[in-house]
Amino acid sequence: MSDIKFIIGLGNPGEKYTNTRHNFGFKAVDKIISLEGLAWKNWNDMAGIAFYTRNQKKILFAKPMTFMNNSGFAVSALLKYYKITPAEMLVLYDDFSIPAGEFRFRTNGSSGGHNGVNSIINQTATKNFPRMKLGIGPLANCSDTADFVLNKFSGSDEEKVEKVLNSIKDIVDLIIDLGFDKAVSKIALKKD
Question: 3-state class of 151 per DSSP?
């Protein structure tokens, strides 16, 4: 597995989406960028980008501004422009099949019904890219999926999400330092 050079958080731009479950990916990269004292810069009206240097490695961070369902357009344009391969990117996004406060890693696979990931797969023509799925579940019974993901976190879930956000920089730093596979096995050991 290649080194990670590009980290993308998925979400929807605009005030009304700011604290919704579907914007967990945005919140995660926002947290890292703010802890580093960096700021987002507009890239071709398609994404907010920032560069973070760690141990002589320059890492590109991005928040696609093309709305969730079209995330792949911004991601593929950034990959081409910065000459990065999909295997060198890490995508952070919400997943309602994972309980709030938990997260999972995958090196490849289908979108699992996530429209943002689906768009990335369609635009890059590959399913082979590392992901960090951030739990927002469980999906309430009889809940409409779109309503659920576009609503804000409930009180107890908010605390769980905050815990993940407080550890997100350490997790991502470990992935940058060790590479995806090694870091993930180390994180899995810590969780057990």
Answer: coil
Nearest 5°: the CA angle 27, 109, 82 is: 60
d(CA 9, CA 16): 17
Mean pLDDT by 10 residues, the chain (192 residues): 90 94 97 97 98 94 97 98 98 96 96 96 98 92 82 90 96 96 86 52
- What six digits make up the tokens of 124? 């890059």
Cα–Cα distance measured from residue 105 to residue 107, given in angstroms and rounded to the nearest whole number:
7
122 and 72 in contact (C-beta within 8 Å)?
Answer: yes
Q: Where are the domains of the chain?
A: 6-191
**Superfamily covering domain 6-191:** Peptidyl-tRNA hydrolase (3.40.50.1470)
Q: Which of 5, 21, 22, 27 is catalytic?
A: 22
- Using a 10 angstrom Cβ sphere, with 0-12 exposed, 13-18 middle and 19 or more buried, the burial of residue 148 is middle
pTM more than 0.85:
yes
| d(C-alpha 172, C-alpha 155), whole Å | 26
Q: Is 22 a catalytic residue?
A: yes
Length of the chain: 192
